[in-house]
Amino acid sequence: MAIKQGLEQKLQQKLSPLQIQTIKLIEMPVQALEQHVREVLNDNPVIDDAPSSGGDSDEPKDLSISEMEDRENGGGSLEDTYNTYSDDDPTPYYNRSVNNWGKDERPEYNTFSVRQSFTQSLMEQLGYRNMTDHQRTVATFIIGSLDDDGYLRRDIESLVDDLAFRANIETDADEVEEMLKVIQQFDPSGVGARDLRECLVLQLEDKKQTPSVRLALRVLDECFDDFKGRHFQRIMGRLHISADEMKEVLDEIRKLNPSPGGQIDDSYNDQAQQIVPDFRLDYENGELILSMPRFSIPELRINRKYAEIMETGRYTTDRSQKDAATFVKQKLDSAKWFIEALKQRQNTLESTMRAIIEYQHDYFVDGDEASLRPMVLKDIAEKTGFDISTISRVVNSKWIETHFGIFPLKYFFSEGLENSEGEEVSTREIKKVLRECVDGEDKHNPLTDDDLVEALSAKGYKVARRTIAKYRAQLDIPKARLRREL
What we know:
By secondary structure, the chain is an alpha+beta fold. It has 4 domains: about 15-55 and about 65-85 and about 300-340, no CATH class; about 120-185; about 195-265; about 345-485, Homeodomain-like (Arc Repressor Mutant, subunit A), CATH 1.10.10. About 50% of the residues lie in helices and about 5% in strands. The strands form 3 sheets. The protein has a 4-stranded mixed beta sheet. A 3-stranded antiparallel beta sheet has the order 1-5-2. It has a two-stranded antiparallel ribbon with strand order 8-9. β8 (about 415-420) and β9 form a beta hairpin. α17 packs across α18 (about 390-395). The longest helix is centred in the C-terminal third of the chain and has 41 residues, at about 320-360.
């Protein structure tokens, strides 16, 4: 096989450091952005976010980026100075010694408090139990095997095997079962259950044994499958109980918690999210006013002492000063890219949000979902001139505060369907009407999916039965049989 050598031209598009940084900043919500800005200010000693000294103070003023560029242009380029210097030692001076310190003095450790986690609560209760070290080790392993909702979804034999092979602890199914019974006595009631029925039974057994509680235990013990399927008439006939007694049973069971582990908030795995809106929209005197009040881009300034290092590095042949000037120049370039990326992020977010407001103007005036127009990413991309991927990054994890609530930007995007008049309506409007139909139904005879198709058709919405089933699932609305009440 012959080997050939030749030239080939290829056209490749590479992103600049500024473009890469801008893309990353656009994706960040305001809280993550503020954290990132603090990290950059700590990592880049050239940047100073404190206001510069002014007035009659003897302290020298910090320099803005534009002022720094004027100094460079006025005094000639630094490139010639850097290129004419060479040395056998390739290690720059600033990599061999530390000659700068961070601006913010922070304590090495920050004290903070956390709430007691679910596992910690169980371990604390275990500590009050009188048992051998071997039993305590087995119980601890069981606690560690519980799911976040408090259930034990592993069979006893698997736990015995894991204790033997992973913890080198010899035990048997009887001892594991015994320790599980101990854990099932802990708070919250129902913890350590292996299925829903056992969870509910454990909670009922902890309650005062009134006639309705005892009857509820009997229903769960003898008719659990019928209870899950809400076949109340079948239960009443099998147990020979009245409708009033069945209602008392339902009242007792509704008070129980099917996820006992969720009662204790785990601060180490906190699912709660603090929302800080990126935008604020006010409606005043018939006009929509958009602002981004939560975060303002500070003017980037260069610390005076680093500017002087660059000035000194222009005209000296001293190795350490030249290396220091090189270091400052690199950090200055990084600062320029960062502040420019921040500005581009601000402009991109604002332009995108204004396009969304213009597109959904009627909705933002009164907050009525019926006024929400069908809108996809492509619609906003065409209005702003940005790429669809850019719009997607802007929409992701961003929130807006309006005069009728706080919403994620994704909320305003939805596909559309035609109504009976041929007009395109948002799927969100159809879901709202569907929810209203379900909320207003007779709970003793709830609407089936076919009934919901007819109800929406009567309101002017042409929706197929499979679409109703899909929207109902998205709205967490159970089937008609499971919505039936006694």
